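User: For documentation purposes, I need each entry recorded in a consistent format: the amino acid sequence on its own, followed directly by the corresponding structure tokens. There are two entries in this batch. Please keep commentary to a minimum and don't merge the entries.

Assistant: Recorded as requested. Entry 1:
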Amino acid sequence: MPPNKKFKYDDSFIQFGFIVINSGGEEKPQCVLCHNVLESSSLKPCKLKRHLETNHSSLQHKGVDFFQRQGQTLKNFRLDGTGMFFKENVAGLKASYEVSREIAIAKKPHTIGEQLILPCCKIIMSNLLGNSELEKLKQVSLSNNSVMRRIADMSNNILLQVVSKMYNSKFKFFSIQLDETTDVANLAQLCVYVRYVHEKQLEDEFLFCEPLDTTTKAKDIFNKVDRFFRLYDLRWEHVIGVCTDGAPAMLGCRSGFQTLVKEKSPNAIGTHCILHRQALMVKTMPDKLSCVLTTMAVKGKSSEKSLPFKKEIQEFLRDRKPELHSTFTDNSFLMLLAFSVDIFESVNFVNLALQGKEINALHSHEKLTAFNTKIVMWRSKLEKKNFAPFPELDQFLDDNELEANDDIIEVMKQHMFILKSNEIQEEFIDMINDGGAKLLHRDMSCSDFWIEMGQSYPNLSKMALKVLVPFVTTYECEAAFSTLLNIKNKYRHRLDVVHDMRVALSKTKPNIDELIAAKQVHPSH
């Protein structure tokens, strides 16, 4: 027997009052008057005309325009994906998700959607499009509970995407940085970022920010991270780097967090945040120089701002605080103050260079090596009484026709020695590559280069990335705490910030279409 013949709908069938509907993968005719769906074998002009004449004889002489209007109305009220009802509600649900995401990114209260955004949209639409269009806004739900649910949905979607990237990475290993702080409700919050290789680049991504339920001891912090790892099937042996601050709970040699991590992953690199180490280094200085800075700090003056207004400050102290006037007119004091301004300007420059996202060990090593080289040069200049590297000090000596005595220079040299002795040593892998690889290295960042070399030199690439992937600062956690303060303030002190923080800080965008597809579309959702 020949195969069953398939009939196709023709646009001319509308003259008989029929449109097409897909059912079970087949095209079937649907009457626009009684809404009955006929078999696909009825897709013949004679059968469609017979239905019109038999069932709707009073309307058989209506024109094509009449049947087209009836057909469009029927299409609009279909509940499947082709109906206007479905499309409008999907559009409203998508708008609700996207506005909720913007609310989270802006760190605003969830109530702002219903209290401010929606009323403003109504004002704009009524003025530009007329009141007839306001009905469409009813499809967009921005109530407090709706916004909260949208943010939670997007947060979970983002987290699953991040975990999936970690699973599917060519290099299975990753590193974490973590820090803890206390929020406005006096609740300890633990923040964790992760760095991994995704496709052909390194990615830094927010992992979670959750409260510590008991204390902030190393064991509590480890248990919190361990529970998260077990929940999402992340393995400790894949952790190759852990960066924390210098608190005993983090760096304790017997029971610190890094020690507990190394029990699970012996090859993990434990890093003390370079920014914190630099801050500790700068605090160490000779007594005389420390005394100068303490004097300025106690009196509420910034050394950088005080020096240009030396004369004004001297006049003020002479009239208001004579006991301090002699200190601020002492040339030795002012020389050390000028020296401090120059030194801290250089330190601040290095500190800013170490801050930011995607900072790795090689970048930090370059900046610190350059700074230490400068220190050696500055020390040799001081021995020759050459103050050119210290512009504020040099200008002060020239303006007042003064010379720094040996005692003052010795204090400065001592500070140079202290800075140099705190040099941060890092171990790096010798880069061995061929001529073609050298050309690539010239045009690519260091991390991108070694990821690219993964196929040609898999073992060497893996070794190099184990140096590049670990964090060297906790900058991103520190920046996240600023977001925490904005989201959870005294007016929202009971808020659970887990989902808001992830949506606000993640680089990964939520797959809103996937979320909509998983929902039953209804304006109350």
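Entry 2:
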Amino acid sequence: MENFYLLSYHGFFLEYDSDVGIYEQSIISSTKKMSRFFLLDTKKDKSVLSFFEKLNIKESDNFILIHHENFYLTSLPDGTLIKQEVKCAGAWEYFLKIPEEFFHKFYQIVNKHWSASGEIIKKRDIYISENYTVNLGNYCLDIYDFMNGFKYDFSNPNCFSFSINDRNIEFKEVFDSEIHKIIWVESLGNIANRALQYLVAKAIEERTSNLSIKNVNLPEWGMQKEHCELELENSCIISELDFWFDIRGLSQNLNNGNIDSFKIKGYPFNVDFYPSRKNAKMYLPNFSDFEEEIVGFNEEQIVFNIRADEILHGIHADYLVLPFEYYKMLEFKTGLKPVFFGQLANNPYIEKLKEEFPNALFVNGKGARYDFEVLRRSCNIAISVSTFSWLAAWLSDAKNIYVPLAGMMNPCQAVGQNFIPRNDPAYKFISFPLCRSECLYKHSERFWENLSYMARNMKFISAEEAYNIFQRVDTLRNKKQGLGGFDPRFYIKKNYKDMLKPGNGLEHYMHNNTKIQEAFPLKEREYLIDYPEAGIIIANGYFSSVNEYHSFIGTHIGNKCY
């Protein structure tokens, strides 16, 4: 008895559904159930169900045609399978017979990494392309040549070989953990922005095996930028406007070899992207190289970190100073002695602040590192609208940390950013209305009106209320793109006009508004039968589709997508 799987000209195998018959085709992948592929018994099968009707099977040497009169099954380059009328069957209508034994062996090798002649071949680079060409990294050969020289023993699954031009090439399995990955940090901005980029890299490192972080520019912690730019291939990048990305899915793509590197060239300000506070304090320890011992403000004081220099010019719409009533509210609420610390150079805002608090302590800052450490060692911190202030507090052991949800820290204004730690009793939150900055010097009247408007509409809210606001805005306005389950071999097939290499697939997917249906193949009906809990979660409004559920949840708990 001879059984064959059927391979299209474009490198897809035909699939079979008991109700519909043959109506789709797909690549071999680790998430693909082998039972989904159509297996032909040439001795027995003279017809087959396809698109709900019986079609004839016609053999032509090593090929099969599936048709009824002049209507033939036709394979399209993007993986679509159609039935159409053709006058004369061409390459797209012919399906190559692949012996069952070879198919089962090939299924094993395409789902692993291999090394040969000192070169590592990632599983993403093992696939069948147009004109029945087998690709194994830099090796490209006709499938007949490959089958004739291919040797694989199920009893020894960690190696295989094939012969070409009288040369035998040995392959040995390489595990995910053996493949080196890189995160390249394009450091941007002040000490806090650069440190937050680094913490994102460390969070990915915690999830990823055998990873190096390069080009970190944090001389404040003894980490120096690289002297030369590293040429990154098979990489993807987050840019300055990418405030949110699927960090768990990204880590999965690094781990399984879909990409070799990741470049952080943006401002991913989201507490969910960072390591735990405990680990972050370990990665960014206290500064201890000052000549004088640095002492923070004590438990009887509340330190108001003041940023009142360049932002008074309205340099960014979401960088704001806070109304004086805010400080009075916290002084009254806490009963602590107010200390104003930071940028206190003379200007109309600081002058009025001093008038409002004649008995308060005003302490000028002495530079970024010193100010950062003073804040970090203080007991009660009321931060400004500033990543510098936020990070110093987050790395502290402060008993109370007060966060104004204003400007860039207001979820409504900086969609995708998140400055709201969950389940941390030290954090208290004050909500503010949506408000943009004004230049104190050019639009003085509007500047003071802004502060009055903010003061009238501020209030304390609980941590749960703060996070609920973030979640509502995040759900409504942050168009999240899941990266989990991404299949680069499937993706380049769906985007064959634009893509040449699987290693560049994730970068293309992230930055071209591609539909998630092209990230990996998924059969909704079968998926919901196998994983009924997915249907319940989707029906409750947590995800918009089965594809989205699989990308964010299913792939990480071992679900197969088809």
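Summary note for entry 2:
Residues 191-207 form the longest helix (17 residues).
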